Amino acid sequence: MPIITRRRLLRLSVLAVVLAVAAGGLTSAGGELWTRAAAQGHVYREADVPAAPVALVLGSEVYADGSPSPFLAARLDIAQRLLEAGKVKAILLSGDHSRWEYDEPGSMEVYLVARGVPASRIALDYAGFDTYDSCARAGRVFGVRQAIVVTQTYHLDRAVALCRSQGIDATGVGDDTVKIYEDPWRNSVIRERGAVVKAVTDVISHRDPVFLGRPETTVHEALSAS
Length: 226
Fold this sequence. Notes:
Pfam families: DUF218. Residues 54-170 form the DUF218 domain. This protein is of the alpha/beta class. The chain is 50% helix and 13% strand. The longest helix is centred in the N-terminal third of the chain and has 34 residues, at 6-39.
């Protein structure tokens, strides 16, 4: 049996790393191609988006005092304008409430109600732990069949693609006003490259959301209140 020298072992290790990086890059590129293709023709400017019954607002960071981060506040502001313009009749707020002290949907509701949005037009999804879960639960738990998805522009293709993969006739409106926060924006764009790989994996596996639960009627009630 040939003896593997330290130098040869080092070369093999470097080659393995290079191949792994290349494979990861190809997977990420494939994920980006899928999300762009799936979202093509379904992403709009706010003024041009066709009307839909529901705006699905995807959660993001909430501060310790309960206030939404600028990224989340920008999403909520778009949803409010869509409601006021008659583009949607109800708003579904989907986010993370996996810990008692951290409540994205509840904080989102407080923000909107404080700005004049009737609570009766709002539904809450407390188990939107990631984009796939938010989209899957919107359709399977809340009965949403058509929606405008609201998030930042770097995230929008993936969000629309995932919702459409769950049988929702989804369009999307994205915010880019928070580009002024250069470091968080740049970091989010970088993280998105990995997130598209997870998105493809989730769609292929047809996994259930982390928490599925029973069907809820709150979206239908919010639509009835319009």
